Amino acid sequence: MKQLSIATLAITLVGFSVVKNTDACSRVLWNNNGKAVVTGRTMDWAHTWNDVLFVYPRGQQMDGGVEGGLKWKSKYGSIGCSISPYAKKYGFDYVKDGHSDGINEKGLAAHLLYLEETVYPQADDRPAVSYMRWVRFILDNHATVKEAVAGMKKIRIAPVKMGGKVFGTHVAVEDASGDSAIFEF
């Protein structure tokens, strides 16, 4: 049974990699009863995002990337993929903006995925974090999915334009225990 599950996961990931000329993201999560947690994702776009990898040590000063946004100091170090080279063309900060996937030192992983139907929440009294810094916020401040779910209730995700367009997004998270959640609006 274990060999069949691994083969099914491999075929699924290969299938995701052959999708062409769409604007989408896909994610697959395989939780083998707490023995292994494996996540794969795609960024199915007609152009490249020129992704780069960053290592972020704990103790970094961050802000929400919008006027009056949340300020925090990262509790956890992380490594992640960022669309910084693409986003920089539109005025975004090369180091702080564009973190699309990553995992922190506690084993919490987060993935920013495209969702065209997204309607971001209206401004309210919660501090804001740009969707371009959403993954960083989660990985910097939370060790588990349960903590991330509680933390998301305290902030508001703010839309920002990149190249004249606000991209609809949602975020998937999973931790070392296999717990998983998806944040959508």
Task: Put the structure in a nutshell.
With 185 residues, this protein is of the alpha+beta class.
Description of the molecule:
The chain has helices at 2-17, 84-88, 134-141, 145-152, and strands at residues 24-31, 37-44, 52-56, 61-63, 71-73, 78-82, 99-104, 109-114, 128-130, 156-158, 161-162, 165-166, 169-174, 180-183. A six-stranded antiparallel sheet has the order 3-6-7-8-13-14, covered by helices on one side. A hairpin with a 5-residue loop joins strand 1 and strand 2. It is α+β, with helices and mostly antiparallel strands. It has four helices and 14 strands. Helix content is 20%, strand content 35%. The longest helix is centred in the first third of the chain and has 16 residues, at 2-17. The mean pLDDT is 85. It is globular and about 45 Å long. 31% of the residues are buried.
Write the layout of secondary structure elements.
Blueprint (H helix, E strand, L loop, with lengths): L1 H16 L6 E8 L5 E8 L7 E5 L4 E3 L7 E3 L4 E5 L1 H5 L10 E6 L4 E6 L13 E3 L3 H8 L3 H8 L3 E3 L2 E2 L2 E2 L2 E6 L5 E4 L2
